[in-house]
Amino acid sequence: MARSARNAVGAFVAAGAAGTVLLLAGCASAVSGIARTAEGAASPATSSSIPTSAPVASTTPTTATAATTAAATTATTRTPVTGDTDRSVAPDPFGSISASTTVGGSGPLDLQTTAWFTAMCEGAQPLTDLADDMESLSSADAVIDAFSEFGALMTTLSTDLADVPPPTFPGGEEYAANVVDGFDRMGTLFTDAADALAEGDTSVLLGLEDELAADGPLQQLSGTDVSPDLQDAVEALPACQALYAG
């Protein structure tokens, strides 16, 4: 995922649903790439090669790659919807979604809102660092370790954010709760996938991809959008700037 993954997490932090599309597409692409490694492995299952006994032949990496490209392209195009503080949601490559709620309002961030987004960006940074290396994984041990770490990081971020007072803008409490729940569920998905891979079950890759692409754990954000003022303010926070610089 490299640069696209870094941008996806950064976009998710500030742009809600639009970033969710990118993050889901990026994760699906990474999972598909790992599944391709499993499918194409010629050697028997060992501690250094991904087992090939699982039915991975039905994986469609071309579709996932196309979805990632489509998401990255459409997410940069924002067409105003109702009102001058709305920002449209990029089309979902896995289905049709539309924003039903816009949060954020206008004006500068207060201290509590600044603290919440700062905590979120600081917690998300390790995710982008790990995602940068995901496509290069080729051994079972490396995949298991990466999935386990990805899950642990997401679970930790969810736990830490739950202890931070939510943003104060209208809808901020629900927005924060959705983000916390989304990261918690994503953490569980990747941790469970790592455990299954450790037992030699590569079919979990297909299940994980389905979870991400269909009714995934971050899809609850698909009905939430943020105002341009909020996105701009979050992007300007020192802790968040690195997420957009990659």
TrEMBL record:
Low complexity compositional bias, start-end: 41-82
UniProt keyword annotation of Signal present: yes
Keyword field: Signal
Signal peptide stretch: 1-30
Disordered: region residues: 41-105
Name of the featured protein: Lipoprotein
